[in-house]
Structures are given as C-alpha cells and as structure tokens.
Specification:
This protein is α+β, with helices and mostly antiparallel strands and 272 residues long. It contains eight helices and seven strands, in the order ββαααβααββααββα.
C-alpha cells in the first residue's frame, strides 16, 4: 500500500512503471540508493523496488474493483480517535503528578493484598560458591551459616569474595525467585514448599566447589507477594489511576463548558 502511494498525483517527472491508471514516477526513486552502492547493485535495488510497486499496485487495483466497502468512515474515526488521544496525552503530560510516596504505595498494597499473589516462590538469601581448597572456606561457611547479617559481616563477606574471586550474592534485603537460587547452587527438590520450610542453611559440594546458602525468609507460590516486589507495579497502577482521573475530569470540564456556551444541541429525546 505504501509503495502504491508513491504514485504521486500531478508529478511531472518521467514515468517508470504503470498499472491501469496509476503511474510510478522517477521522483519516487530519489534517495532509494545510498552512497557507496555499486552500479550493478543500485540497478538491482531500483528494479526490485519497481517490481514490488507493480505487484502491490496490481493487487490494490483489483481489490478496489471488488471490494464495495467504503473506508472513509473508518478512516475518519481513526483520525478522530488519534486526535483525541494526542490531546489527552498532552494534557496528562502537563498535569500528571508523578511523585508517589512510600506511604501511598503501602496504603494501596494493604488495601489490595489479594491482588498480589505470587506465581513462583521467592526468597531473601545470601549464597557463595567457594573452591574446596580455598583458605577461606571455613570462615565463609561460618559467616553465611550463623551470621546475623549486619553491615559489618556483609562487608567482610563481600571483601573476602572479592579478594579470593568467589561467586556470591550478598543482597540480604532483596527478594529473588527461588529458581535463581537454584541456578546458583545445585539445589534439587521436588517440593519447593517443603524444602523451604525445612531448610534455613544449605551446604552442598561437587568435585571442585563448596556451595553455602542462608535462606533468611521465603514466600511460596500463591502467598501474597512481599511489598518490595510490588513497589514498581503499584507505582505504575497509581499513576495510571491519576491519568484516568485527569482524562475523566477533562472530559467533564469540556462538556460542561460547551453546554454552558450553547455549543451543544440535542435534537432527539431517547427518554421513554
């Protein structure tokens, strides 16, 4: 359709192709071939363009003869809807307050907890993979298994991991999917809920590594998701509510203004 539209009305440049009463002019080919294209390649590009225009235009001409639908109404409705949407978006951009406080997020979360059920289990955990011959195996295991995870202990764990090139995760306050923990540590279980209830510390080994994890908290699937996992989602919900309120208020204001200015007349009475 776009190619067919290139047949400009009133174009006085040479005609390079014709289908019925539609013509493709030389001007439509301007800029088609970029700099640095060889002569043979440029000819091929132009010829392919012309052939594609011919095929598309043949189909369009045939369709116009056999389709009785008049799309003017649909096109006008689309234009009207696009115009209204663009104006609404402009007003929303001007008026929307994008600041959402923690208290507003928490209030919404408390009022809509049932809307935030988990699809998969999540955990707060720290873990580290240590070469079995590393000199820090014992100290790191002790920290992960028994520490209270205050700032000083987390700093020590991160420092030891950096010094000895250990792969670990020490964001103890952040919720992560349980399958992320399983990807880092070879935990095998056929019942996530039972495993999480029974394990707070996990120690595993393979031929080269010792894996140590501490599960600080967990939520299983179908439980209400922790607030921290839903903050961004709730913020988006609250902003969308504000957008709807702005648009509804705009509609009501414009209608009232038009009616008060005698710009609206109703010629039918639908009351029975």
């Amino acid at each position: 359709m776009l190619l067919a539209a290139c047949a400009s009305q009133g174009d006085d440049s040479p005609v390079v192709a014709r289908v019925a009463d539609r013509e493709l002019h030389q001007s439509a080919l301007v800029g088609l071939v970029g700099d640095g294209i060889s002569g043979d390649d440029s000819i091929r590009i132009v010829n392919n363009y012309i052939e594609q225009w011919i095929r598309q235009t043949v189909i369009l001409v045939k369709a116009e003869k056999n389709i009785e639908d008049d799309f003017q109404r649909e096109l006008q409705e689309y234009k009207d809807n696009l115009t209204v949407y663009s104006y609404e978006r402009q007003i929303v951009d001007q008026l929307l307050d994008t600041a959402v406080s923690d208290s507003q997020i928490e209030e919404y979360y408390d009022a809509h907890r049932e809307d935030f059920h988990l699809k998969n289990s999540v955990v707060r955990a720290v873990y580290v993979a240590i070469p079995r011959k590393s000199p820090v195996v014992r100290r790191m295991k002790a920290l992960v298994e028994r520490a209270q995870f205050d700032d000083e202990q987390l700093v020590e764990m991160e420092r030891m991991a950096a010094q000895h090139g250990l792969h670990g995760y020490f964001e103890s306050a952040t919720w992560i999917p349980f399958h992320t923990l399983q990807a880092a540590i070879p935990i095998t279980t056929y019942n996530e809920n039972l495993f999480l209830r029974q394990h707070r510390s996990v120690t595993l080994q393979d031929d080269s590594l010792c894996y140590v994890a501490r599960i600080l908290d967990y939520k299983v699937s179908d439980q209400v998701a922790p607030l921290d996992l839903q903050r961004d989602n709730i913020r988006a919900i609250l902003l969308n509510h504000r957008k709807i309120e702005i648009i509804d208020s705009l509609h009501a204001h414009l209608l009232r203004e038009a009616e008060e200015g005698d710009e609206v007349e109703r010629y039918t009475d639908n009351k029975r």
